[in-house]
Each structure stands twice: as structure tokens, then as C-alpha cells.
Amino acid sequence: MTFRLTALTDLAEMAFDTIIDVRSPSEYAEDHLPGAINLPALSDAERARVGTLYKQVSPFTARKLGAALVARNAAHHLETALFEMPGGWRPLIYCWRGGQRSGSISLILSEVGWRVARLEGGYKAWRRHVITCLHERAFPAPVILLDGNTGSAKTEVLGLLRQRGVQVLDLEGMANHRGSLFGGHGPQPSQRAFEGRLAVAIASLDPARPVVVEAESSRIGNCLLPPTLWRAMKAAPRIAISAPPAARADYLIRAYGDLVADPGRLAAIVESLRPFHPAARLADWQALVLRGAWRELAAELMLHHYDPRYNRHRARMGEGVTEVRVEALGPEAIVSLADRIAALAAATPEGS
């Protein structure tokens, strides 16, 4: 049985028990369908070996070896990852183009008695839908930008807005990055994986309701925003959080507690700013790191690095700014701030 993908939301609606990517581990690591597990028909080394035989000896010899390796790997998966699956289990299987690898594994699992579906067109069919969503169609919902200088708790407010029923896109969450040199959470997804996450989120939006997006540049760490979203963001009205520098500095110390706890890492990031600032200023900042003067360091970084860049970035964005002033950014103040912004977002007619 084959399954044809007609929209990015089809996978959730079909409710397969397991989505299985039978491509090699490196292919899976670069990108895969949401929630898919990797049970490779061929390892990376095996795939390379079969490909070499195909080119240097003959396609027939390569197919013989490939069949033997796939059968051996399928047996391993049946004895391990799939051994406890019940009789009613319904997997969806895919490979690169929906061809030999997924076809071979599907046949073997079907013979066991499971109701196996194979994704028509494989990963390439999925990728075509992602590209269409992000590069060929206009952004589907009106956008409201949540703006504010570094340390104004935008990301935390965005999460609270979602809890209040506001439609949001968490770009930093999908990119696994807090949007600055100091903001890495760990390894970022590949560009393709980021685009897949984003496309699914966009496809799930209600086009009749505005979506709140944190104001970003066109790049979040190593992940680039697609042009349709970036154009919508540049033209969108903004709700801007305005907080005093002292309140923002205190918030940054709490929000970046992982860096405060690792002065060596923090010093290395400060050093990476050398191309943008005079040597004397970098030396002053490194001295603040050594002293553990976190509040003073945060204030300096906001004043000389982040605020000027935010201001230049805003000059390229659309008009229409609603400012929300707040004097403190403690936990209770942020909850109140989220309530105020949720009300403003709801009152913004079609995000304009």
C-alpha cells in the first residue's frame, strides 16, 4: 500500500503508529519527516559500497549485494527495534525517492502481517511540499511582530502568549538558538531540518487569526528564514516591549544563567566580538568577566553592541509600532506583560 502526501498536515491526520526512515544515518541526520525514527536499510558505508559496485562493476552485481545487505539489516531490525510491535501496528516507511530501499523493507514487514504503508515519492515528495510552503506561497496568516531590545523577555512572553491561546511561531525554538552570539542552546538543526519544522508549523496555522512572531533578523544562528516569511515580517505591525536598561540587565543575568555559570565560555564569546569593537572595549569586557560583574557586563553589551544593532534593524522594518512600557521584568511582571500583549494582539484587526 502506498500513501500519497497531499499536504504537510497529512501525516498527523493519518495517525500512523510509527514513521520509519530507512535511509542511511547521515541522510536521516540532515533532515527527516517529523517524528520519524531511523531504521536504515543500508548504513552509510554499505550504501557507498553498493554505489561503487554499481559504477565500477555492474548494476546487477550491486543489486545482489544490496539485496543481501538490506535483508540482513531488516532481520536485525525485526529482532531488535521492531520485535515488540503488535499485530495491529501500522508503520509508514520512506526512503529518498520511495524506491528500492523502502520497497524492500515494506515487503519484508508486510510478510510479517503488519499493515505497512510506503510514502509515494519518499523524502523528496516531503521536501517538495516544504519548498512550496516556504518559497512559493504567500505567508498564510497576518503577522504581528513582538519587538523589544535585548533582555526584554520576548521569548518568555511568546511562550506565555501561546498558553493564552494566541497563535505564535517560535522561530528561536525551532532553530534551537536564542538569536544572538550568546544564544546557542546546543547543536542547531540543519537548514533543511529547520525548514521542515517551520513548514509544518506554518501549515498548521489558522489563516483567519494573526500569528505573533518574535522580531528577528533574517538569520537565527545558522538558520536562514525563508523569503515569504521574511517579507511578511518586514511589513508587519509591531508590539514593542520597552523596559529600562537596569531591568533588562537583571533579566539577562537570569535568562543566560548557563553562561554566567561558565565564565570561560562567556569570555570566548566576548572575544568573538573583537571584529566589531575597539580592543580597549574588549579588554574592559573581559575584565568584567574575570570579576564576575555580570550586571555591568550586560549593561555594556546592551549599550554598545545589541541596542545599536536592534535600532538599525528596526529602521528596515515596517511602520506601525505599539509600545508596551514595563518598569520591571520579574516573573509576576512578565505574566502581566503577557496579558497586556495578548489583549493587544487580539484587538489588532487582521494583524494590521
Automatic annotation (TrEMBL):
| Domain of life the protein comes from | Bacteria
The family database entries (CDD domains) matched by this protein are listed as: RHOD_YbbB
Q: Which Pfam families match?
A: AAA_SelU, Rhodanese
GO biological process terms, alphabetically, are: tRNA wobble uridine modification
Q: Which PROSITE patterns match?
A: RHODANESE_1, RHODANESE_3
A Gene Ontology MF term for this entry? Answer: thiosulfate-cyanide sulfurtransferase activity
Which InterPro entries does UniProt cross-reference here? AAA_SelU, Rhodanese-like_dom, Rhodanese-like_dom_sf, SelU, Thiosulphate_STrfase_CS
Q: What is this protein called?
A: tRNA 2-selenouridine synthase
